[in-house]
């Protein structure tokens, strides 16, 4: 048991660290190649916080643990909204002014409904996995196209561009890019192996271990990004990290088990856990899009979100 806990903790630490270095190297290298900061911000930086989920999903799928991969995606999306935004909102009201976010949040809801339709029959097929990936690529293409053709400046794009490392030597950028690419799959494997050992010891299902320990662990980059964004008064970037990560998870990351290991899905994932993803995503949309002129997440919203997270975790462990 101690060895499994060590594997889990070491894998998690290495996963978060290597994801950060991967994004740092990739963003700096892209900037040195002359790519526009807005393009880098909307792609590499925006998707970087979901790198842990992507590599964990790939590792779990290759090892035949489809439910762990799916649980990681659903659990991460729930944790991002209830735990990460809950903690962040406690630091102070989070205001939203970005028009990009006001488009992406409805997209997140539509993507969630599509996934719900795919999971409804208790199977995730390869065709569905490929469809999710195609939808993701189309969505990214649209956002990039809109970003270049929209003459009005957007708060989210500006804040994302400011996060791109500047004046980094190309050799250094490539070094950290390679380090991240090597360590990400290794650390993901350590984390999955440790989690599996713990799950077996406590008789937890593959789905529950993905929804709980792994999901919360892979959401740590979002927590760091959100807290940093709020402290730097970059509220749109804080919310953008969550919405962008959830979109990436539900489309790109969930496509991985569908493509690599298609097959039956735990019935609870397509009912209890999907409904929780839909409920929390809808709650975020209501709070942000229908909160009047203020468009704010307030500290008391954070309290409600945290209570929701704790209640959901209790249900998972007690069921």
Automatic annotation (TrEMBL):
- GO annotation, biological process: intracellular calcium ion homeostasis
Q: Name one Pfam family in it.
A: Na_Ca_ex
**Cited InterPro entries:** K/Na/Ca-exchanger (IPR004481), NaCa_Exmemb (IPR004837), NCX_ion-bd_dom_sf (IPR044880)
Where is it mainly found? Answer: membrane
Per UniProt, residues of the Sodium/calcium exchanger membrane region domain are 5-145, 173-317
Which source organism?
Shewanella fidelis
Q: What is this protein called?
A: Calcium/sodium antiporter
Transmembrane regions listed in the UniProt entry: 35-57, 69-93, 105-123, 130-148, 204-231, 237-262, 274-294, 300-318
Where found, per UniProt? Membrane
Q: Which controlled-vocabulary keywords does the entry list?
A: Membrane, Transmembrane, Transmembrane helix
Q: Which GO terms describe its molecular function?
A: calcium channel activity; calcium, potassium:sodium antiporter activity
GO terms under cellular component: plasma membrane
Q: Give the way it sits in the membrane.
A: Multi-pass membrane protein
């Amino acid at each position: 048991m101690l060895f499994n806990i060590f594997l889990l903790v070491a894998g998690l630490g290495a996963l978060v660290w290597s994801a950060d270095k991967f994004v740092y190297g990739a963003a700096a290298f892209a900037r040195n190649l002359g790519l526009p900061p807005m393009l880098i911000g909307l792609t590499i930086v925006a998707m970087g916080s979901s790198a842990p989920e992507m590599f964990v999903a790939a590792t779990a799928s290759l090892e035949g643990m489809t439910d762990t991969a799916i649980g990681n995606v659903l659990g991460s999306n729930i944790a991002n909204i209830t735990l990460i935004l809950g903690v962040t909102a406690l630091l102070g009201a989070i205001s939203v002014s970005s028009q990009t976010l006001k488009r992406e949040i409805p997209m997140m809801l539509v993507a969630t409904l599509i996934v719900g339709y795919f999971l409804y029959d208790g199977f995730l097929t390869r065709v569905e996995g490929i469809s999710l990936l195609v939808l993701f690529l189309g969505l990214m293409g649209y956002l990039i196209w809109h970003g270049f053709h929209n003459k009005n400046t957007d708060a989210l794009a500006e804040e994302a561009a400011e996060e791109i490392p500047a004046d980094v030597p190309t050799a250094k950028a490539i070094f950290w890019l390679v380090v991240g690419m090597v360590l990400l799959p290794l650390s993901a494997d350590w984390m999955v192996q440790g989690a599996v050992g713990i799950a077996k010891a406590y008789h937890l299902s593959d789905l529950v271990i993905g929804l709980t320990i792994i999901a919360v662990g892979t959401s740590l980059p979002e927590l760091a990004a959100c807290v940093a964004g709020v402290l730097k008064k970059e509220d749109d970037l804080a919310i953008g990290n969550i919405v962008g990560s959830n979109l990436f998870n539900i489309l790109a990351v969930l496509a991985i088990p569908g493509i690599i290991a298609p097959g039956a899905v735990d019935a609870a994932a397509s009912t209890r856990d999907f409904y929780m993803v839909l409920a929390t995503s809808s709650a975020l949309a209501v709070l942000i899009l229908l909160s009047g002129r203020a468009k704010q997440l307030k500290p008391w919203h954070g309290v409600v979100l945290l209570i929701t997270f704790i209640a959901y975790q209790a249900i998972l462990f007690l069921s």
